[in-house]
Amino acid sequence: MARNEQEQFLSAPEKVISILDGDQRAKKFAQLPSVYTIPIESVEKAIYEYSKTKNDFPFTTERTDFTGDKDFYNHILQKEIATQEQIFEYLIAENHEALQQIAMVLRDFLGASA
């Protein structure tokens, strides 16, 4: 983010935004005007939590000895239980209302860039 503002290696600063996991919202860099956070702490945390709390969770596995959210997330990807796209689609469906604000940010940004 700061590097692009200085070096413009991606594009002019007004043509670049950053979208971060919600657990980054308290970080200093997340306060920059071009930085936005999703209303989910992290993809890994959310999918792991849903695996434990949702009876209809679609990405099941026999394994139960996960060391945490990243271990679970990596397992379902590596074992091809779900693709990253399927995980994102699931999280979008489960958090549709909460994601509307960030969707509007993206629509506005992409509309202005076109």
Structure write-up:
By secondary structure, this protein is mainly α. It has a domain of 54 residues. Helix content is 46%, strand content 5%. It is built from five helices and two strands; from the N terminus they run H-E-E-H-H-H-H. A two-stranded parallel sheet has the order 1-2. The chain is elongated and about 50 Å long. The mean pLDDT is 91.
Features of this protein?
elongated, 114 residues, 46% helix, mainly alpha, two-stranded parallel sheet
Please write out the topology.
Layout lengths: L1 H6 L10 E3 L14 E3 L5 H11 L15 H10 L5 H11 L5 H14 L1
Parallel strand pairs: 1-2
Helix pairs in contact: 2-3
Q: What global shape is seen? A: elongated
Rg value: 17 Å
Kindly report the average pLDDT value: 91
Query: How would you describe the oligomerization state of the chains in this entry?
Result: single chain
Output the structural class: mainly alpha
Question: What order do the strands of the largest sheet run in, or round the barrel if closed?
Answer: 1-2
Residues in β-strands, percent: 5-15%
Number of strands: 2
How many helices? The count is 5
Distance between the termini: 21 Å
Largest sheet: 2 strands, parallel
List SSEs in N-to-C order.
Answer: HEEHHHH
Please give the share of residues in helix: 40-55%
Task: Please provide a brief summary of the model.
The protein has 114 residues and is mainly alpha-helical. It has helices at 2-7, 43-53, 69-78, 84-94, 100-113; strands spanning 18-20, 35-37. 46% of the residues lie in helices and 5% in strands.
